[in-house]
Amino acid sequence: MKYFGTDGFRGQANGSLTAIHAFRVGRFLGRYYSRGKRARIVVGKDTRLSSYTFEYAFAAGATASGADVYLLHVTTTPSVAYVVRTENMDCGVMISASHNLFADNGIKLFGGDGEKLSEDVLQQVEDYLDGGTLPLATGADIGRTVDYVAGRNRYLAYLLSLPKTSLRGLRVGLDCANGSAWALAKTVFDALGAQVYLIGASPDGTNINAGCGSTKPAALAELVRLHSLDVGFAFDGDADRCICVDEMGGIVDGDGILYVCARHMKERGELGEGGVVTTIVSNLALARALERSGIVVTHVQVGDKYVAEEMAARGAILGGEPSGHIVFRKYAGTGDGILTAIMISEIMLERKSPLSCLLRGYKPYPQRRSDVPCKNAAQTLQQEGVRRAVERAERLSGGRVVVRPSGTEPVLRILAECEDESAASDAVGIIERAVVSAEEAL
């Protein structure tokens, strides 16, 4: 698609993604869902400066097409998905660029089932963005905006209803990335009885994900070590991701989280026959470790929406990505960082075990990753020099190499994985140099 990638329409705020785009997306969805009725669309946003611009631009477009727009204000992506699913909304919109820095923004869309909007509807949105026309609502058919903080509060109540036990006595570090979780996460863990230590909770519109959050968990690891905490949880800008830190300051990514949750659920008879769904960049050691426990692992292309789709097709109730998108399908149809943190906390208490011990039996193979900026990543990947470099890197490393265009940024993502850490680094370097040369030649 031209505008929508694996996680919405994302780009530099008022650069490749403008307020006009947001207005026109609102115009289309407001009209699309208002056929024969008054549509109800719920909108949330993260803390970045431009989110106000895009929130109001979308609302203007949707109301001009005859829809009522329910504003959750600063909230998390999973809360938008929850409200859509439980409050009889037609559509949900989250204004966020997830883990990107503040200069970027994005528009994520959800259908009435609380899951990512279908490719068919997204294509219709794109067609309209490229020059379509729609009539404006007039008179009493013009929509309105509704302050809907109550929807966010119901989501919080839902999270609080899930744990079977109190978290009293658990010392927890939270890194909210100066983003959507900055107030919600502490509220949840305070209410559940945990003793909370907080960082990344002073958003100013420009510091979202800056040196903090799920992509930069070093500050949280230091917090855990400094205060001898039991566990730490780092969220991204819209809190649909969670990365953990164990009691010794070790980083536990989405693969580690899946390992802990899958084995626990298997032992309790809760995992079902669908096994675990993850992506092609998941560490191969995860699949081998889970298979030793009798758990089937299915791999799909990168993107939490593909994970969710495969989970639905297989009847799986657990899936996710190394980035920390973890889907507990019994409770939600999309990744939810705060929910993931609750699940891990509850498992630790139920098993009376620190997180590091729950990871025994899983040792990830060394991986090296690199993101190389590309004007046209898909085209660059097809260049003969790049293809030869990938083949050479695979031969020399003796392991696994994955090179793919990002679905959210103008970069080519490189992953090398093998038992020899230096060989993985060498493999990435070979491909990086070939990509840079190919970019210069285009």
TrEMBL record:
<dbReference type="GO" id="GO:0006048">
    <property type="term" value="P:UDP-N-acetylglucosamine biosynthetic process"/>
</dbReference>
<keyword id="KW-0460">Magnesium</keyword>
<dbReference type="InterPro" id="IPR005846">
    <property type="entry name" value="A-D-PHexomutase_a/b/a-III"/>
</dbReference>
<keyword id="KW-0413">Isomerase</keyword>
<dbReference type="Pfam" id="PF02879">
    <property type="entry name" value="PGM_PMM_II"/>
</dbReference>
<feature type="domain" description="Alpha-D-phosphohexomutase alpha/beta/alpha">
    <location>
        <begin position="2"/>
        <end position="130"/>
    </location>
</feature>
<dbReference type="InterPro" id="IPR050060">
    <property type="entry name" value="Phosphoglucosamine_mutase"/>
</dbReference>
<dbReference type="Pfam" id="PF02880">
    <property type="entry name" value="PGM_PMM_III"/>
</dbReference>
<dbReference type="GO" id="GO:0005975">
    <property type="term" value="P:carbohydrate metabolic process"/>
</dbReference>
<feature type="domain" description="Alpha-D-phosphohexomutase alpha/beta/alpha">
    <location>
        <begin position="155"/>
        <end position="249"/>
    </location>
</feature>
<protein>
    <recommendedName>
        <fullName>Phosphoglucosamine mutase</fullName>
        <ecNumber>5.4.2.10</ecNumber>
    </recommendedName>
</protein>
<dbReference type="GO" id="GO:0005829">
    <property type="term" value="C:cytosol"/>
</dbReference>
<dbReference type="GO" id="GO:0000287">
    <property type="term" value="F:magnesium ion binding"/>
</dbReference>
<dbReference type="GO" id="GO:0009252">
    <property type="term" value="P:peptidoglycan biosynthetic process"/>
</dbReference>
<dbReference type="GO" id="GO:0008966">
    <property type="term" value="F:phosphoglucosamine mutase activity"/>
</dbReference>
<feature type="domain" description="Alpha-D-phosphohexomutase alpha/beta/alpha">
    <location>
        <begin position="253"/>
        <end position="364"/>
    </location>
</feature>
<feature type="domain" description="Alpha-D-phosphohexomutase C-terminal">
    <location>
        <begin position="373"/>
        <end position="425"/>
    </location>
</feature>
<dbReference type="Pfam" id="PF00408">
    <property type="entry name" value="PGM_PMM_IV"/>
</dbReference>
<dbReference type="GO" id="GO:0004615">
    <property type="term" value="F:phosphomannomutase activity"/>
</dbReference>
<dbReference type="InterPro" id="IPR005844">
    <property type="entry name" value="A-D-PHexomutase_a/b/a-I"/>
</dbReference>
<dbReference type="InterPro" id="IPR005845">
    <property type="entry name" value="A-D-PHexomutase_a/b/a-II"/>
</dbReference>
<keyword id="KW-0597">Phosphoprotein</keyword>
<keyword id="KW-0479">Metal-binding</keyword>
<dbReference type="Pfam" id="PF02878">
    <property type="entry name" value="PGM_PMM_I"/>
</dbReference>
<dbReference type="InterPro" id="IPR018247">
    <property type="entry name" value="EF_Hand_1_Ca_BS"/>
</dbReference>
<dbReference type="InterPro" id="IPR006352">
    <property type="entry name" value="GlmM_bact"/>
</dbReference>
<dbReference type="InterPro" id="IPR005841">
    <property type="entry name" value="Alpha-D-phosphohexomutase_SF"/>
</dbReference>
<comment type="similarity">
    <text>Belongs to the phosphohexose mutase family.</text>
</comment>
<dbReference type="InterPro" id="IPR005843">
    <property type="entry name" value="A-D-PHexomutase_C"/>
</dbReference>
<dbReference type="InterPro" id="IPR036900">
    <property type="entry name" value="A-D-PHexomutase_C_sf"/>
</dbReference>
<dbReference type="InterPro" id="IPR016055">
    <property type="entry name" value="A-D-PHexomutase_a/b/a-I/II/III"/>
</dbReference>
